[in-house]
UniProtKB/TrEMBL annotation:
Pfam families found in the cross-reference section: M20_dimer, Peptidase_M20
Protein name according to UniProt: M20 family peptidase
Any one GO molecular-function label of the UniProt entry: metal ion binding
Signal peptide: 1-24
Key words, A-Z: Hydrolase, Metal-binding, Protease, Signal, Zinc
Species of the source: Shewanella gaetbuli
InterPro entries (UniProt xref): Bact_exopeptidase_dim_dom, Pept_M20A, Peptidase_M20, Peptidase_M20_dimer
Protein family (similarity comment): Belongs to the peptidase M20A family.
Gene3D superfamilies in UniProt: 1.10.150.900, 3.30.70.360, Zn peptidases
SUPFAM superfamilies tied to this protein: Bacterial exopeptidase dimerisation domain, Zn-dependent exopeptidases
Length: 507
């Protein structure tokens, strides 16, 4: 689950802006880009039994702990077996593989299409869930892994993040197979086992595997992100569906110095600790420049026309601007974003010094010292670019720089004007109606699909969680207490994937 609350908070300060440039004349059209007149469809679902299956799914404690040695293999094996028993047609028709490196607990399903010349599509979701914080346990109204069905909801850890998506996909597929349907293009499901810790074992292996098998292009990927929520975007009271089109990357660099130590009674002019401290200081001072990434521009192109009139001139400038020739309105936007710690992260690659280790005794000069700097790269800033940037900032041959993370580069940007986006918007409107705003957005967190979206073979990755929340208050369930899903809404979510399978025929 991406950090929704953070992402939402990041949009807030923009609305406190007062712009002197309001309603500036501009020839560029800035009218609504919302799809019109889509007919709503109600998909008939055997909801009682689907609810029982999701309730049972929640009872498997497929937890991703920060300590990776604390891993319950049995819980995953039992969950796999339960899935197999629950969807007989899926398991008769699709190929199932258990993959992951070094631990194989992710599931890869392949639903062979009729036309092998068409590039495949991928539906992603994750099996693992975050642990229950001990101090929050007494705030839960039900046992967190009970899968209680009560008051019109299914309750429990993972019921919103993200077992609901695994099971909605499988329910929809079981229905389609029962009706004799076979997709034109191959559809694969990737259900990772370590999304909550970055997906290095599951989703990354899946991407490696498909690349190794020679798949040149993946036409469409859908993965979790923000659910539909009224008021998710301040200034718009309407229901809003945000479709993630790009995700930030992740890289941690270790800076180290290894030279001679010695006795503290005869110190050199510069100790290892000071040399490294200077290097770290330079890295923090050399902040990456602010820029308006295409994903942010696209976001305002779709969202801007739906926002209050007074600020539309600025949003329009952002939507259609050009990085080589920033206008005053775009600069105003950047300044407003940069003034706030949260929004600032949307407009550049962030630099965070997170660890510093040296020395073991008060009278010993340590022979080495290490520090770790964590970066969240903007799309476009590759690990190579970042390492180069750091070395240039330090200008010290004694300091070594090493990537110690299972780094993921920043992703490509999915095309919000392409057929994939359009069919997704159509599916959203078929499921939840036309009384909502649909917009692309730049995801500040990331989910398993980043392992695909960062590669050239899967440019069009779209992320959205196909459920409707009643209000922003329900976000508290994600990684928090009283995670629950409305039964009725779970039914709609199954319908969403059912319609998506149909609509993919038009891709
Ligand atoms: Zn998740």
């Amino acid at each position: 689950m991406v950090r929704c609350s953070k992402l939402i908070a990041s949009m807030l300060p923009l609305f406190a802006l007062t712009t002197q440039h309001a309603l500036a004349d501009d020839k560029q059209d800035f009218s609504s880009m919302q799809m019109q007149g889509v007919e709503q469809i109600e998909v008939k679902v055997d909801l009682d039994n689907a609810v029982k299956r999701l309730s049972k799914a929640v009872q498997f404690k497929t937890i991703s702990n920060q300590d990776r040695n604390d891993f319950d293999e049995q819980a995953f094996n039992d969950y796999h077996e339960f899935i197999k028993q629950s969807y007989p047609l899926v398991h008769k028709t699709l190929k199932r593989e258990i993959i992951g490196d070094p631990r194989p607990f992710s599931l890869l399903y392949t639903w062979k299409g009729k036309d092998p010349s068409l590039a495949p599509a991928i539906f992603m979701a994750h099996q693992d869930v975050v642990p229950i914080a001990e101090e929050s346990r007494d705030q839960w109204l039900v046992e967190p892994f009970s899968g209680a069905i009560k008051d019109g909801y299914i309750w429990g850890r993972g019921v919103l993040d993200d077992k609901n998506q695994i099971h909605a996909i499988l329910e929809a597929t079981e229905m389609k197979i029962k009706q004799g349907f076979q997709p034109s293009r191959t559809i694969m499901f990737v259900f990772g086992h370590d999304e909550e810790v970055g997906g290095p074992e599951g989703a990354k292996s899946a991407a490696d595997l498909l690349e190794k098998r020679g798949i040149k292009e993946i036409a469409f990927v859908i993965d979790e992100s923000a659910p539909l929520t009224p008021g998710i975007f301040p200034g718009i009271r309407e229901n809003t569906a945000l479709i993630g089109i790009a995700q930030k990357g992740f890289i941690s660099l270790e800076l180290a110095i290894n030279s001679v130590g010695g006795h503290s009674s005869q110190p050199p002019l510069e100790s290892n600790i000071v040399a490294l401290a200077k290097a770290v200081t330079k890295v923090e001072a050399a902040q990456f420049p602010y820029k308006l990434h295409d994903a942010v521009r696209y976001q305002y192109r779709f969202m801007g026309p739906e926002l209050p009139k007074e600020q539309q001139a600025m949003y329009k400038a952002v939507a259609y601007g050009d990085n080589d020739n920033l206008t005053q309105l775009e600069k105003d936007f950047i300044n407003a974003m940069a003034a706030n710690q949260v929004t600032r992260s949307m407009i550049h690659t962030t630099t965070a010094v997170t660890m510093f280790n040296a020395g073991i005794k008060d009278n010993v000069l340590p022979p080495s010292a290490t520090a770790v700097v964590n970066f969240r790269p903007m799309p476009g800033d590759t690990p190579e670019v970042i390492i180069e940037h750091v070395k240039n900032a330090i200008q010290d041959e004694r300091i070594t720089v090493r990537d110690i993370s299972a780094s993921t580069p920043a992703t490509n940007v999915a095309n919000p004007h392409g057929q994939g986006y359009k069919l997704l918007e159509k599916t959203i409107r078929q499921t939840w109606g036309n009384d909502l705003i649909v917009s692309p957005f730049f995801v500040m967190g990331g989910s398993d699909s980043k392992h695909f979206q960062a590669r050239s073979f899967a440019p069009d990755v779209y992320t959205i969680t196909g459920i409707q929340l009643e209000s922003t208050k329900e976000f508290e369930g994600f990684h928090g207490v009283n995670e629950r899903i409305l039964i009725e809404e779970y039914g709609r979510s199954i319908g969403f994937f059912y319609s998506l399978i149909d609509n993919l025929e038009d891709l």
